[in-house]
Design goal:
60s Ribosomal Protein L30, Chain: A, RNA-binding, single chain, 45% helix, alpha+beta, 127 residues, four-stranded mixed sheet
């Protein structure tokens, strides 16, 4: 896991935060509060239902994801990169690599406190 990460993949979560994000993604997937894939993530942003966006820094080419940070900044949605699309896929509950996903808004969600913790952690990375 020591290969160079594309410098455009910013902000990149450290292993500790990555683990927390993957745990939350897994919970969100089981609560149906997750959209997988760059296209779905884009849709959640456009519809204003995204809590935060997770992207894989090892997506090839990374450019297929780079419209997302711009959109996130427009919509004021936190976003973060993690190193592995394989790990993101597993957390999303699929056997394939997933290059990005969006945790979505759900009013009665019991994931709310965890989502807010992650959002704060992501915002700290951007400072």
């Amino acid at each position: 896991m020591t290969e160079e990460v594309n410098p455009k993949a910013y902000p990149l979560a450290d292993p500790n935060l990555t683990q927390k994000i993957l745990d939350l993604v897994q919970k969100a997937a089981s609560c149906k509060e997750l959209r997988k894939g760059a296209n779905e993530a884009t849709k959640t942003l456009n519809r204003g239902i995204s809590e935060f966006i997770v992207m894989a820094a090892d997506a090839e080419p990374l450019e297929i994801l780079l419209h997302l940070p711009l959109l996130c900044e427009d919509k004021n949605v936190p976003y973060v990169f993690i190193r592995s699309k394989q790990a993101l896929g597993r957390a999303c509950g699929v056997s394939r690599p997933v290059i990005s996903c969006s945790v979505t808004v759900n009013e009665g969600s019991n994931l709310r406190p965890q989502i807010q913790t992650i959002q704060l952690a992501i915002e700290k990375l951007l400072i």
